[in-house]
Amino acid sequence: MSEPDIHPTAIVEPGARLGSGVKVGPYCVISAKAELGPGCRLQNHVTIEGPSVIGAENVFYPYTSIGQQTQDLKYRGEPTHLRIGDGNTFREFVTVHRGTAPDSCTVIGNRGNFLAYSHVAHDCIVGDGVIFSNNGTIAGHVEVHDHAVIGGLTAIHQYCRIGRHAITGGCSKIVQDVPPFMIADGNPATVRGVNQIGLERHGFDAESIRCLREAYRLLYRSELNVKQAVEEIRKTLGDSSEIGHLVDFIEASSRGIIRRPVRGATEE
Fold first, then answer.
1. Residue 45 a catalytic site member
2. Is 5 a residue of the active site?
3. Buried/exposed code over 43-54 (b: 16+ C-beta within 10 A; e: otherwise)
C-alpha cells in the first residue's frame, strides 16, 4: 500500500502512527496517542483521541469521535485505553470512549457496523460482527457478544451482557442480561422468543434451532424457575453446543437474565 494520504486541512499531531494507505479527509484531528492500522479511511471532521490502537480497514464517517476520555465522574485523568479490531464501520456521530480505571481498556472486535449516533461507553467489550442500529447506546462495562444486534434507540444498563446472536428491539430498555440466541424487546424489555431468522441467516441448522426453541420454552413458558429450567435444559438438551453456551451464559450472569414473563407471547 501507499503512504498515508492526509488532507492539508487535517491535523495529525506528532507521535500519531498511521499505517500504509490510511486516508485522512478534511478537518480531521488525530491525537499524538492514536495508532491507525493500514487502509483506514477517515472521511471528514473525524476526531481520534487516545491512547487508542485501531486495526486495519476501519471506516469513519463524518463527526465520529473515537477514543475520547470516559464520561465516568470517577475519572481523574489516568492513562486509559481503547482497542479496535479490523474492518469496522463507524457512521455519523458515533462516539466510543476509553476506559476509566488506570490502564483499563474499552475493546471492540472486528467487522462491526455502528450506525449513526450509536455510543460505546467506557470499559465495554464488544465482539465481532455486531450491529448497532441508530442511537443504540451501551453504558459502561457492558458486554456485547459476537453477532449481536442492538436495535435503534435501545439503551443498555451498565454491566449488562448481550449474548451471542441475540437481538434487541427498537426503543428497548435493557436492565438485565439478554441470553444468547434470543430476542428481547420492550420497555422494560422482555424475552420474546428465539432469534430464528437471524440464526438461519448465519447458517444454524434446523436441529440446533429446535433445541434453542425448546430451551426458550423451558425458561420462559414453563412454571420452572431459572435454576430448575437450567437443570432441565442440561438434562434433556445438553448435547448441543449452542445449549451448552446458553447454559454457561446464564450461570455466569451477575445481574440475572431478563426473566419477566410475557402474557400471550409466541415464539418467533
1. no
2. no
3. bbbbbbbbbbbb
